[in-house]
Amino acid sequence: MSETVLPRVLIVEDQLNWRRLYKIWLRNSCHFSFSLSRSEAMETIRNQYFDVIIMDLGLPDPDQGISVIRQILESGIQSKIIVVSAFTERELLLQVQGLGVYAVFQKDDRLETEIPIFVRKAFEMNTLERENANLRDQFREKIRRFQILGTSTAAENLRRNAQSISQADTPVLITGPTGAGKNYFAGLIHSLSKRVDKPFVGLNCANLPPQLVESELFGHTRGAYTGADRATIGKFRLADGGTILLDEIGDLPVGVQAKLLQAIEEKSFFPLGGHEKIEVDVRILASTNRNLSREIAQGRFREDLFYRLAGFVVRIPSLSERKEDIPLYFDQFVREVCNQEQMALPQIESPVYPFLQTLPWPGNLRQLKNCATNLLLFHPKKITRADVRKQFMPPEKSLLDHAVEKKFTLREMTALYVKALFEELPNKTELARILQIDQKTLRRYLKMEVEEK
After folding, report:
1. What are the structural domains, with CATH classification, of the chain?
2. How far is CA 418 from CA 79, 421, 424, 428, in A?
3. Who is most buried in 49, 69, 83, 308, counting CB within 10 A?
4. All residues at 6 or more sequence positions from 337 whose CB lies less than 8 Å from its CB, including other chains
5. Burial class of 375 by CB neighbour count within 10 A (0 to 12, 13 to 18, 19+)
6. CB of 239 within 8 A of CB of 196?
7. Three-state SS for 188?
8. pTM higher than 0.85, yes or no?
């Protein structure tokens, strides 16, 4: 049995007889402390947290009491304030209520019964407000984790689509190249939906042997197959009430597709080896980098399952289609790695960003994140354009080998050499002196575009 949590209460009261009464009224219902003056109360509040503060308005006059109440409220302290006053002036009591205190009482015979009740209610409200604040923080963290960065038209469209799609329970099919952020988009849909406080469960359909996919999806009973020495509940039951992401749905074995279709349509299924139907309430998201129309034509994907999954279809563009977003994602990945490894943020030279935008990124966001991780591993203090470039040059080939393989002209070879040297020595005056050429010739070589052949 869990222990009852008692509220922590500070009672600001300078009269001994009232302190004795509070001890009687509140015994066994809270942990309480006393302060006898305004200065003592403020010092105590600065050093300890209290759920409820019971404040005598006269310390020794009401103006001082109101001043203390204002200080507490303006300091951001989350305690609930109950004011007790021997003064009966209606205007004064209305002024106190207008400050935003929890309750105001006059010192009379009713306090014996009302104070314990209102202390408990104030404590419960304070607890509820803290829990709500924690939920809001968790929600903001989920939004931050699955945010779609960027100022490109593609990024704006994705954010708009996520906002619209998240409000429905219709299945969503997310397509796009490998590493483009399909899982991020699925997470964003869940975090914006009414199911945000329920599970978000994913299953990569490509990473499992065909004979285990059905068990992972729907669970199995003990003895359902050789080696099944205990029962499992499966991803669908884990996601009950929330969202399930079927990643790489195009790789789902045809034999399992029929059972998945039935589970989606009936919102129920039988575990592998089981005879009891399990009902679930889940939203279905699916993602793939395959062309499902081609898979359907070649008999590898069921057409009826495709139409069931494609309530909404969203294509995630490749990174090469939104190059203006690359610097934002690179900075985000650098921050994530630094936070994870407890590293200080490195200095990133400004030429790094436009250079990143010139690179092809066939692995999209996944490749960009790996790039950021590797750069931080080898260059934790400072990242330069030359550091990035070295990651994309085959380490086993020299500049000369590369030029010979591509059959560059002498002028192209010279331009490559000048550009490579400039990355190591970005001082044009000093570089022109080393190369024994004038500034005009140096600028011409630096501007020359060398196309891959």
Report:
1. 8-135 (3.40.50.2300), 146-317 (3.40.50.300), 323-447 (1.10.8.60)
2. 68, 5, 10, 11
3. 83
4. 343, 372, 373, 376
5. buried
6. no
7. helix
8. no
